Amino acid sequence: MSSLLSSLRGLSSHERSVLAATCLSSLGSFYSMAVAAFALPQIQTGLAIPEEEVGELFALIRVGAVFSLFLGVLADRLGRRRLLIASVAGCALFNIATAFAQEGWVLAWLQLGSRFFMAGQILLAGVVVSEELKAENRGLGLGLLSAIGGLGGALTLLVYAFVDDLPYGWRSLFVVGGFGLLWVPWLLGSLSETRRFKAHHTDAMLASASDSAETVPSELSMGEGFAEYRWRFLALVAIVLPVWIIAEPGSFFVSKHMQDGLGFSPGGVSLMIGLCGAATPLGNLFSGVLSDRFGRKPATIGVCLMLSLAVGLFYNATGPVSLGIGLGLIFLGIGSLMVLQAALATELFPTGLRSSASGVREAFATIGAAAGLYGLGALYDVTQSHSESITWLLVLTPIAPLALLFIPETAGRDLEDIAPDGGT
């Protein structure tokens, strides 16, 4: 705790201003992430969605995050600021539009649009923080971004508690999800383009206007950039994909396992998740601070191994103590991975590829989550047990730690030292 407070006191006024703007912009994204899942019973009843269509509709919604890769690519060409603000506005507008949906598939497509911009908010806010904070504060900044942004999820829970009393019921939840529009004027006036992107853009313009290729380092094209850093991109995929194949089923089936497998009441589930869920913001904050001090690689390797251990413990627990420890460590691990994987995606690549790499991370996290749920269904046909099927997914655990051994350490180093613009 003293390390966290010391790090917070060491932030400059500019860094605090950047964190205020990016944290505010991310609140709506976490609200949007949770609202449809919380309100599923009311939505299904209100729009008369058949049981057999529910899974398909929510699978469609989840796919929206994959396409945020295109926002990352655009941000590497047009700038972080304008795409981040556009994402805040886009997410809010799609949420408001969802309140007027009259059919399940219309709602799903509108929420796909919301997820597209929601994921854009998350990845671009992370890029802005990484580019504007000092090397020794980047992990702290990304941790704060996730922890404070997570308050949007808490807001969802608070508003949902009154869903039956709100005018227009569940539709009002999506209108509230448009509160990001209130931040847009303030963001336009307070959030400036990152200094690294402005310098990169200026160098690229000078290079294109120069007759001598030696005058200014040339900008990597997208194809050249991916080719130049292909091993880092492959390593990033190996670090992200298998972890979320494990993490998504491991977190998604918590309530079902506790109720159907262990006989917990809904109230008992809520109490257990509420108590253990406090570990998520702790993971956000302390993974950032500790990885700033001890390194991203050892921190990420440790968290990957801890998460798999926690999933195995929770789904094979024989008593309430081991069950609670397992669940708390699952939340701690997921909160930590949100920060550590975001840090690696932004730090391993040059300015001209940084947002694109963050988009790749978000896309493959989504693909991994979908693959985990799909694989779980295939394993269930053999095991006839969700717990046993989730346990079998743990065979993928060594992939991410092994991939981490082949990338450079990024903590405490200037971004230009890790990945120079114009190629290595």
Could you please describe the fold and organization of this structure?
The protein is mostly helical and 424 residues long. The chain folds into two domains: 13-197, Growth Hormone, Chain: A (Up-down Bundle), CATH 1.20.1250.20; 222-424, Growth Hormone, Chain: A (Up-down Bundle). The chain contains 23 helices and no strands. It has helices at residues 2-9, 13-38, 40-46, 51-63, 68-78, 80-98, 104-132, 138-149, 151-160, 170-176, 184-190, 195-209, 222-228, 230-252, 254-261, 266-276, 279-294, 296-315, 320-347, 354-383, 386-393, 399-404, 415-418. Helix 5 (68-78) runs antiparallel to helix 20, helix 7 (104-132) crosses helix 20 (354-383) and helix 8 packs across helix 19 (320-347). It starts with a helix and ends in a 6-residue tail after the last helix.
Principal-axis shape: globular
- CATH homologous superfamily designation of the largest domain: MFS general substrate transporter like domains
Separation, N- and C-terminal Cα atoms: 38 Å
Q: Give me the strand/helix succession.
A: HHHHHHHHHHHHHHHHHHHHHHH
Mean pLDDT metric? 83
Helix content: over 70%
Number of strands: 0
CATH architecture level-2 label of the largest domain: Up-down Bundle
Assembly classification: single chain
